[in-house]
Amino acid sequence: MPPRTRISCAGRECAETPTVDWESEVQLVSSLAKLQELERKIHELRQCIPAGILSPLAPISTSNNPSDQAASPSTLHHGLEIAAREGLANIEQFQSLWRSPELKPVWDHVQTRINESNGQLVQPTGMWEKDYASILAHLTTTKQSAEEDRLRQEEETERAKALSSEGGWRSVIERFSQRDLPGVHIIRSKNQDKPEFAVTLARAGMIFLLEGTREPDSPGVANWQVANKVASGRSPTKLELAILECLDSRPRKWDLAFLLDMISSYAEIKQTPCAKCTKLTNNAAQLPVIRRVQPAEQPTDSTQIFSFNAYHPDCL
Ligand SMILES: [Zn+2]
């Protein structure tokens, strides 16, 4: 989402207007698509009078059918009233679109260009030669898939790095411990060579056992598995099982830093509301156990901290 600036408009209601980068192709195409849509609506509104509003009377003037001509004056009046109201509502909708905050910078830009060209309008044929809505849809899809490709390549590079480093997981634990997150503790196993340790969440009263597995030809950990540790004689609670299921379905299974941040996001599970409905429990009295990683603001690197949003299963 582009940054928003507040424009001053003395005496009138202020609207937030997005700042516009007129060098951006997407911005130009999306502005043209908006103008094209406005023009399409103008043509639609031109039909409003007389054809649209008087349409309820059309059967009388065009039909030879006596039953059409026999419509009662009150029926005709009712029909006319509805048509007039609809016509007016369409005009008002068009006006508010024309004056909307999204179109304000477009009109300002058009005016600036007119001023710069001494009133000479750039209008080669006076007609729209392209469909800017479909060009915009194409540009957006292309941009999205380029971004997905970039992220995939980036993860592949990070994964290859993690797999080639034999003790890389130890420094991830070291960096994580240094952050000293309240209520989150790491318990290392006696055998420091094995990628095995536990994470405790004191306030949630949960312990997770983490174990890394390797692939035959690489020294680093390829996959981290998580299990609940419960006192003997007790079976895991529904909440523990739901959290485990969510942890198991995470992406970046090779990424210990990601997993540790994800587990930490459950540290305050009983105080963390759902990012969608903003409630703690839903109608089924469930806590928001689902976690979705927030998009990274910085390009990923080895010290990145992942943030997660909490959701109820039925709020996704
Ligand atoms: Zn919710």
Summarize this entry quickly.
This protein has ten helices and eight strands. The protein has 316 residues and is α+β, with helices and mostly antiparallel strands. A hairpin with a 7-residue loop joins β3 (184-188) and β4.
Features:
316 residues; alpha+beta; 2 domains; 4-stranded antiparallel beta sheet; two-stranded antiparallel sheet; 10 helices; 8 strands; disordered N terminus; binds zinc ion; transcription; transcription regulation; Mediator_Med27; coiled coil
How is this structure best described in words?
This protein has helices spanning 25-46, 48-54, 58-62, 66-69, 73-98, 104-116, 132-164, 168-178, 238-248, 256-264; strands at residues 4-6, 16-18, 184-188, 196-201, 206-214, 221-228, 290-293, 308-311. The protein is elongated, with a radius of gyration of 31 Å. The longest helix has 33 residues, at 132-164. It has 316 residues and is α+β, with helices and mostly antiparallel strands. It has two domains: 4-123; 163-268. Helix 1 (25-46) runs antiparallel to helix 7 (132-164).
